[in-house]
Amino acid sequence: MLDRVDADFLLSAYDYELPKEQIAQTAAIPRDSAQLLVVDDQTQHSHHIFRELPDLLKSGDLLVLNNTRVLPARLYGQKPGGTEVEVLLLEEQQKDQWLALVKPGRRLKPGSKILFTPLRSDCSISLSAIVIASDEATRGRIIEFEISGNHSLLDVLDQFGQLPLPPYITDRDSQPEQYQTVYADRLGAVAAPTAGLHFTPELLDRLQQKGIDQAFVTLHVGVGTFRPVETEDITHHQMHGEWVEVSPEAVEQIRQTKNRGGRVIAVGTTSVRSLEAAAQTGEIQPYYGKTSLFIYPGYRWRVVEGLITNFHLPKSSLLMLVSALIGRERLLKLYQDAIEQHYRFYSFGDAMLILPEAKIDLTRECGDRL
């Protein structure tokens, strides 16, 4: 029989059952009315409402938020013969050349042409694309776009593309802005950093009035965040690189926070990966580039002390990251309690606040496997 530490490295150990009706289909209105499960220490947890966050943190704490903005990255078109095509942009490789996931993939071999229809009938711009290569790492395609006039794809994307809501959100009544954080200002993600969806401008103001500061980093959420883990031994999983920016200003805010005894609380797993990617040399430094950092139990934490996060899909790399902070077994027990308390799960769902007092150190137990 495997011991607990060995089980931490098995994909099947991160499974749980969720009633379908608890997959949130619409955003909470107002945003900060979501439920909040607070993990107070290594044994206790309690139930709150997200708007109570200023009372749950301390003056001198620092929230680190991801300011990426979601692209209208889902496009619909057709082949010249009439076959319907769906394209999900992942990242720009060079000007007007993008890595994308496509459906139906088998029919879109290199050389295939795609014609796109604008969302509005008064649009005079024409958009087409040629598939120029396959990408084995993502099972996607490299697509080169052709745009009429002196335009780039980003110039015209809002006239052709739609916000790419996750496939488990089947209620299409949600408004596009509900899938953007109120502080999103760096266009480039294909999915929202969903822990940040709970903040309102008023809540951010109340946090600052309490002496809880805010720093911003950028991680453009791509396939690395939501790509399934497919190996039973999770240590063999390879994350796809995603673009990260941690500015000198953010680094200085973090250093000042730690020097005065404040706590660094990451808002979302993407903020976690941004900060930890910038500190892989041991101390956080400004960072601009891609990261493929995969965090799972046994990870040696360098920057992050606490976390605000949503409830994640079974067997996902995000579930493994949170397990690295408080332990897999405890996390799954918390998820079970959240299910019993009728919390809403996934992108539009409720949230969890893990305070620094709840953080555990698994590096001694797991270190020989890392």
TrEMBL record:
Gene3D superfamilies: QueA-like. Pfam families: Queuosine_synth. GO terms for biological process: tRNA queuosine(34) biosynthetic process. It catalyses: 7-aminomethyl-7-carbaguanosine(34) in tRNA + S-adenosyl-L-methionine = epoxyqueuosine(34) in tRNA + adenine + L-methionine + 2 H(+). Pathway: tRNA modification; tRNA-queuosine biosynthesis. InterPro entries: QueA, QueA_dom1, QueA_dom2, QueA_sf. Keywords: Cytoplasm, Isomerase, Queuosine biosynthesis, S-adenosyl-L-methionine, Transferase. This is S-adenosylmethionine:tRNA ribosyltransferase-isomerase. It comes from Phormidesmis priestleyi ULC007. The lineage of its organism: Bacteria, Bacillati, Cyanobacteriota, Cyanophyceae, Leptolyngbyales. The gene is queA.
